[in-house]
Structure prediction request, 605 residues.
Amino acid sequence: MQPKKDIEYEGPITIIKTGKGFFTFDPNEEDMFISGENLGGAFPGDIVKVQFIGNDTDKRTGKARPAGKVVEVVSRARETFVGKLVENKEENLIMMIPDWKKMYVPFVVKGESLPLGHKVVIRFKGWNQHQPYPWGELEEIIGPAGEHETEMRALALSQGFRSDFPPGVQTEAKYLEEHGRQMLKDGADEGIAAGTRKDFRGTTTFTIDPFDAKDFDDALSVKTLPNGNYEIGVHIADVSHFVRPGTQIDNEARKRATSVYLVDRTIPMLPHILSTDLCSLNPNEDRLSMSAVFELDKEAGIVSRWFGPTVIHSDKRFTYEEAQEVLTTQNGIMLEELNILKMLADKIRARRVARGAIAFDTPEVKVILDENGKPVDIVAKERIDTMLVIEDFMLLANEAVAEFLSTEVKKTKTQSIYRVHDKPDAALRSMAKAVYTTKNAGHFGLAFEFYTHFTSPIRRYPDLLIHRLVKRYTVEGVFSKEELAELDILAIHSSEREVAAVEAERDSIKMKQVEYMSEHIGEEFDAVISGVSDRGLYVELKESRAEGMIRVRDIGDDYFIYDEKRYRLVGEKSKTEYALGDPIRVKLMDARLAERELDFQIVKA
Prediction:
């Protein structure tokens, strides 16, 4: 169905690096094409009003498509931008080249003493009609481009994440440093006395985390019951006891919505007094927690479950490797408990897979840096049994809490937040992204009818909201109507900030992969074709997982045709095929650090 000329369509615009725009006026129809001259000063992701102006011919396919023009920028997706200051001598201008790859145009920067060659933050001020460039004013100097510290800070700032906390948060954090331990003790004593907290301090409890973890937000307790069943407690740090609505810490946590994990640092959602001290389930200390407690039979079937505030005392801090050593050698502290968890987790996972859950086992990499931030090695992260055990019980808790809250909100006609993953779009053949929403639609990838995030409130704001909701329906009833009304907005915001955090994390890895590979230009590598387009082949190296491209013009002495339906390039004369997933031998030709891109050529057999 064609868009109508007498209607102004409003929504977000997509703009690619070449300066071409696309606007979804109907999810069931082809996007409206918007040429560069019709963008109306819009940036990627801006909310715009668009008018249909007729049909345009797609030069690539020769087919007609609807075309439009931006008539108004309703709101900006970004007001600040990060990039490198350079001099445009031809036009006598100081310009900033944005780091954001989606940005298709540089900025003119106005001001005194502008440091050329430095990464900076500018604030967008306007884009005058008939002018080729938008302009902005200098807001912050990050540092000399190319230096490790500069590039890491620039990467975070470009996605809107800052390491430092505002003064109001620092003041409240200082109060918690002075009074937090008494608040913790009072919370435990008063909660147990009032019957609003269950005491799990006498039950064997421990944490299992990465060796370099500094905050422990989940612990497991294990008890064999007289009837032969098992009581398994999934205990999560009770951040909501310390972080109350309306406080400066809460306001900042809402704004950040997530912690960010770059290759060399963590940008936390919460101040360190909370994330690594009061809310960290450290061994040999009493801690407040929110718990999902299950009675499981020998087949890992749920006999009963309980949710609510607790007090725990972790007996041991395991690393994944330490717990794995106990399981592998069948010798060591808490062997019986670890065996029980492993046995139950295997059955929980098998049940999930039988229901159709997808195994997202894409190998992750860890970049090893020296003291100056230079990458010296890239290693694949190994997935071991103890990681799967923790994952299985976290998923069990998230699913159960979501189902519990769904039942409660139906009774009270209120709302909750769910983690939703739609089925793939058959036309696009692409996997949808999981998002936060107040409308439950299940989680396709995990094959769950109900799912939410309950298990990481130190690093994810939706989990903190879920804890407050669980308290509302189990002991306190303090989640206000005003807070409930905000859940829709907070779900959307949390989804957006999650995407920004993931982009920052991936960019930090890619930056260091390209830097590492720059020492290996001219060398050959085994790779796999990870993507195919009309521009060429995307490849991923088997060892370092570094990604790069082989442009179609560099593939060989043939004209290669892009088969979009089968994700392959086919030589017109030779009939040589290169398809998604094919193994391939490649030679590294260039490592472009500024663009974070690698160029390869095929090594002929």
In short: The chain has ten helices and 31 strands.
